Amino acid sequence: MKLLNILLLNMFLILTIICCSDDDDDDYDDSAFLIRDASVQGAADDEILKSYLETHFYNYDDFNQSPGDYSISIKLDTIEGSNSNKIPLINFVEEKEIPIRQDGVDIPQKLYYIVIREGKGSTPYNVDSTFVSYKGQLTNGFIFDQRDVPIWFDLAKVVKGFRMGITSLKSGTFDINSNGTYDFSNYGQGLFFIPSALGYYNNSVGGIPEYSPLIFSVNFYTLSTTDHDSDGLDSYMEDIDEDGDPLNDDSDQDGAPNLYDPDDDNDGVFTINELDKNGDGIIDDSDGDGTPDYLDPNISN
Fold first, then answer.
1. Which domains does the chain have, with CATH numbers?
2. What SS3 class is residue 144?
3. pLDDT tens per residue across span 197-217
4. 3-state SS string over 132-170?
5. Which of 19-28, 82-91, 272-281 has the lowest mean pLDDT?
6. Element (H, E) at 8
7. Which neighbouring-strand residues pair with 77?
8. Residue 198, burial from CB neighbour count under 10 angstroms (0-12, 13-18, 19+)
9. DSSP letter string, 1-64
10. CA 273, CA 231: separation in Å to the nearest integer?
11. Predicted TM-score of the model (pTM)
């Protein structure tokens, strides 16, 4: 019994030392668990992207010499050596300020983009489904994802920088071959240079380190307008505050954005059954208070 008591006492002392160790230990860095301030990180990312844009170019000569040749793909390279006379990307870019919300505050982030071929079809909304091929890389040249065979992308589920960037392009046209395959032409091609807050930010994903700016080269072939919750409203129409981003609209504050919520006002009646009850093609506002019935919890018939 005495030996058991001694062993228990020693275990208690060891646990006490471990649990009460100095929080200032040099081996412990609590900053690793803190999410960086988006305004500070945005400024740092902007410097990284501008440096890249000033020191790299794309194969604009190929596109200028063969404007109708859609077999040409976008290529990026460094301005040095035999390429020292090339025009830098910075001379071609346009930019958009896109806010992200952190701690209840909207913080603008700068997205750079280049429209290489605009396309001749329709401009997508940023929550549509798009048929694209693409290459994603880091500023150090590491390719983290590439799709040469086109794939459907639900823009509501991709990083914000990509879905906002692709609205600068238009879809193309296509011919159906006798074997059922498609040949696309006249489609949009472009480059997006995305700060980390419009990408994966503090997450490390698929070989992408946290706080990494992203670069995408994109071919945009065609689109399908979406109604994610099948409520009779195309998803882009569920941007209630008209800020250009339907994903941050949640009228009934139930945690589901309106574009995923079949009952937008949480009154027990599905949106699709409140939109146009009299079938006149106009969204109903029964009490004339300026709030459509499908967003008005006081109207549930």
1. 38-224 (3.10.50.40), 227-301 (no CATH)
2. strand
3. 999 999 999 899 999 999 999
4. EEEEEECCCCCEEEEEEEEEEEEHHHCCHHHHHHHHHCC
5. 19-28
6. helix 2-19
7. 57
8. buried
9. -HHHHHHHHHHHHHHHHHHT--TT-TT--GGGGSPPPHHHHHHHHHHHHHHHHHHEEE-HHHHH
10. 8
11. 0.86
Residue type, 284: D
Q: What are phi and psi of 10, to 5 degrees?
A: -65, -40
Contact 96, 56 (CB under 8 A): no
Amino acid (1-letter code) at residue 237: M
What is the sign of the dihedral through the CA atoms of 231, 234, 235 and 241? negative
Q: What is the pLDDT of residue 20?
A: 40
Which amino acid, one-letter code, is at 50?
A: K
Give the C-alpha separation, 261 to 263, whole Å.
Answer: 5
- Average pLDDT over the chain reads 90
For residue 189, give both structure tokens: 């091609």
| Token code pair at residue 157 | 């589920």
